[in-house]
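This is your field. Pick holes in the following sequence-structure pair:
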Amino acid sequence: MRFRRQILVSGLSLAFGAVLGAGVTNWRLHDKSGSDCLYPIVQAASEVSLPPVSGITRFGLPGFSQLKTRQSHMLSYDPRLRGPAWVLEQLKSERIQGMADRSHCNFREDESIHPYHRATNSDFKGSGFDRGHLAAAANHKWSQQAMDETFILSNVYPQNPNLNQYAWNNLEQYCRSLTKSNRNVYVCSGPLFLPKMEADGKMYVKYQVIGTNNVAVPTHFFKVVVLEKFNGEIELRPYVMPNCPVDEKIPLERFLVPIESIERAAGLLFVPNILKTTNNLKAITAGGR
């Protein structure tokens, strides 16, 4: 029986793992003798000719990853979509309780984002879509500021009201219930834009946009739930729901998918700090446990 080591996953490692995980996992390379090296092999400076960096960046960089840190969640913003690529939360039983009042919260623009690239409330007006939270307001009752920040539009996507108010809400409630039986519950939520075969037999990625700012309407949403148990084991529960009316009576287990399917579709890596073949990680997917 393998010795099980306790692995602690922090919200910060998950967030940066999602952004940097692809590079980190490729750091084990082979040298010329064929043996494994723990560090990347870098060409000597004399072998490579690079232009002066100061010249390249003279007028600034055209773009970079936009990480936003709030009081109770983190996100990576995608300016093309006018929404987040992912939003990460850490749920604890004491944080989902408190006196924060949703009625005091208002949806508002994210003023830290350039006006060309951000959503506004007018984009949603008359669209037929709800302003759907990725970090749920009810997850952060412990602080009025924390709850207020979930209403910033960089945490929001257009969501079908018959998904947002029913099945998606059920999933959010379920995530909160998991805090009773786990040391930590990490929730990473985000959009998916999945391809579909058209009449010509070819696959296309098509999605609606709304408002004058062309806010993207995801075809699906994912929610990856990472459970840190009291014995140190880590369990994954990856869910995908379509952005359309969903019968709230459908069991949540029906929306479980292999974690790899979300990673491939979203271009992300979840829990890259943990080797997924170890006994410390248990993945729950549709059809089995």
Summary: Helices lie at 11-25, 53-56, 121-124, 144-149, 161-177, 259-266. The two ends are 20 Å apart (CA to CA). The chain is about 20% helix and 25% strand.
